[in-house]
Amino acid sequence: MPLIFISSESKNSRRQLAEDLAKKLGYGCLCREDLIEEATKAGIPVGKLEVAMIKSPAMSERLARQKERYIAFITAALCERAMEGNFVYHGRAGHLLLQGISHIIKVRLVVTQETRIAEAMTQLKLGRDKAVGYVKDVDEDIERWVRYFYGVNRDKPGQYDVAVNLENMSLSNASAMLCYMAELPDFRPTPASLRALENRSLEARARKKLALDPQTENTDLKVRAENGVVTVTYMPRQPGVAQIIPEVLAGLAGCKEVMCTMATTNILWVQEKFDPHCEAFHQLNQIAQRWDAAIELVRFTVPPDLENVFGGTYVEVDQSAEQALAGTSNQFTAEPPKAEYNGGIEDDVESDKVKDVGGVSDTIQELVNIGRSGGAHTIRGNFHTLLSVIRGDVKYSLIVLGDLFLSKSHETQVRLTRELGGYLAERVGVPVITSDELQKKYLVGKKQFLKMLLYSAAVAALYLVIFFAQGPLLPFLGDTEHMQQRIIRMVAIFLFIPVVAYLYGTVTSLFLKFLKFE
Amino acid sequence: MTAKLNVIIIDDEPIVGKRLKPALDKIGCDVEFFTNPLEAVARLEEKEFNIVVADIRMEGMDGIELLERVQAKYPRTKVIMITGYATLEMAREAQAKGAFDFIAKPFKPADLREIIAKAAESLGVSDIR
Fold it and tell me: In this structure, is residue B128 part of a structural domain?
């Protein structure tokens, strides 16, 4: 028999439906509220995550990691219960936690606004106006929460197996219908779906263990599990964590082997001022996703009085703040001391708020949110200083130069950026481009699509001409008697072949980019 | 208004008062702390406080009920809710019932001081340090 996950904004209705359904099917019943209580007791500040949705949708980097811990904890709890037996789960967006398992029926329960307003009026003892405001606010908060936690719109119908609207259907009939649905062969467990659940369970338990262990809680790890083998991918800026991961996962039930791999590559983004909402950030994120790369930020400024931008002894590197922020470290050898119980009142720390000069903190937070943070540095100096922070043990695949030398004139900015590009390309040995070139070189948009169409038409026209004009062409190519004809033919071929090669090469390159194949 | 800001903190964990009281004394607040909400209600019957800081989950009386009582008796008093088990719904309920603000644990005393300063400003008290 399948598991049933009910999602709804109305806590009351989902609870009633889930309890009735569980009773009819002889299942256990589990709700989100129980799981978040467990998570809070385990030290995950769920309340802070919830309130952050109301107060500040742009979460701090610290909360972004807590979000990962929360998801790991809840997923593991659901998997553990799923391995023990069948149950009906009801919550806000449980259907997004265990996706891809065919013996889970994902139900969207729709309750009318009027019903919810009436519930708020009676249960919370609110007047009508306040109840209307309450329902509207909670709806918007949940919408934001689902989008932030899972990156999806909760109303997208493809996420659910069935949507039940209670406007014209009683809860009891809705429950009877779902009981019938649970009997359908389509939702019966299969060997493949059970194996998928086992894999998800192992993966979730490994993620939970890593997220709750003080030695690995501040690292950015990606976990996958298949047939008892747990593969953990860590970021290049945290190489020391590779030694700790197997120790943390030791004794994990069902885990036969732990494999640690470093994320394949880093993209280095050098700029004076960062903004997580700019176009270059969006483009770099797309490229990083395609390459499975992390993005490392370098905020680079040149002192106005600096005479030699290429070399010399000028060194001013301030990595500490951003490194702390981005969890950059190779040292993962000692277990941090356990803090005394403080009743949820932490110590005031003066230096807790990192001064966000140049938008580095905001950008790193956004990168941590999307799991692409490669760390950050702030450097003031010359080209040599910049080169000194580029680590030899990290594999870079691209260096992107954004807006630099902002205190100089436009012409000087362009010249110095070009010179810096040449300097880095020669010494680091990876492609160096400016952020303006990202779209052209690595991404495809409308412009590229039109270009591909135009060039394809030109290539097709050329081949059609050759196909239909073979009568006059062959005598032209075959005439060996006249020297003048020979020279004209040679010149024609000399000009024609590069044109065809250029057109054909451009079409092929754009086509491969569309297929995301490079 | 130049009088000291009267603050009552109600949380069933003594450690909360131990940590918050000195942090608020420091900025010139006159702070009383209660672990028993019923005793706090009795104290509130005797004296009007400028600011009430109350935990939501407590034995005997929850923070929302306390909020309703304070709102009914002293509409000018600013109530700040604190809890370790916050949900969106709970925070919105407190807001709909007139809570001045809502803080989820864990938090730093500085976070509460910031909210208290805002509450003091709305009460016309400006000598908060």
Answer: no
- Measured CA to CA, the distance from residue A518 to residue A429 in angstroms comes to 19
Compute the distance between CA of residue A68 and CA of residue A71 in angstroms, rounded to an integer.
5
* CATH number of A3-193, picked from 3.40.50.300, 2.60.40.10, 2.30.30.100, 3.40.605.10: 3.40.50.300
Q: Give the C-alpha separation, A479 to A489, whole Å.
A: 9
Query: pLDDT class for A321, splitting at 50, 70, 90?
Result: very low
Tell me, what CATH number does B41's domain have? 3.40.50.2300
Peptide bond into B106 cis (omega under 30): yes
pLDDT at A5: 95
| Band (A190; pLDDT cuts 50, 70, 90) | very high
pLDDT at A326: 45
Question: Is the fold of A3-193 the same as that of A267-334+358-442?
Answer: yes
- DSSP for A321-389, written as a single string: HHHHHHT--S---SPPPPPPP-TTBPPP-GGGS---GGGHHHHHHHHHHTT-EEEEEEEES-HHHHHHH
Share of chain A residues as helix, strand and coil, in percent rounded to the nearest 5: 55, 15, 30
Asked whether B5 and B50 are in contact (CB, 8 A), the reply is yes
* Average pLDDT score over residue span A243-256: 91
Q: Check CB contact of B89 with chain A, cutoff 8 Å.
A: yes
CA distance B30 to B24: 8
Lowest mean pLDDT among A93-102, A167-176, B7-16, B47-56: A93-102
**CB count in 10 Å sphere of residue A148:** 17
pLDDT, one tens digit per residue, over A18-45 is: 999 999 999 999 999 999 999 998 888 8
Q: Which of A51, A54, A353 to mutate to test the interface with B (most CBs of B within 10 A)?
A: A51
Residue B113 lies in a domain: yes
Q: Does B72 touch chain A (CB under 8 A)?
A: no
CATH topology of domain A267-334+358-442: Rossmann fold (3.40.50)
Answer yes or no: is pLDDT of A322 > 80.
no
Domain enclosing residue B37, as ranges? 6-120
Give the minimum alpha-carbon distance from B4 to chain A in angstroms, rounded to a whole number.
23
Closest approach of A44 to chain B, Cα-based (Å): 10
Beta A3-7 vs A28-31: how paired, if at all?
Answer: unpaired
Whether residue A40 and residue B85 make contact (CB cut-off 8 A), yes or no, is yes
Please state, in angstroms and as integers, the Cα–Cα distance from residue A460 to each residue in A243, A396, A493, A499, A502, following that order. 57, 39, 18, 13, 14
Helix (H, G, I), strand (E, B) or coil at B128: coil
The residue extents of the domains of chain A are 3-193, 267-334+358-442, 446-514
Q: Is residue B126 part of a domain?
A: no
pLDDT at position B38 over 90: yes
What's the structural domain count of chain B? 1
Ramachandran class of A347: left when φ > 0, alpha when ψ lies in -120 to 50, beta otherwise = beta
Work out the pLDDT band at B53, boundaries 50, 70, 90: very high
So what's the pLDDT on residue B1? Answer: 46
A144 part of contact set with chain B, CB < 8 Å:
no
Q: Do the domain assignments include residue B129? A: no
Pick B89's closest partner by Cβ from A11, A40, A343.
Answer: A11
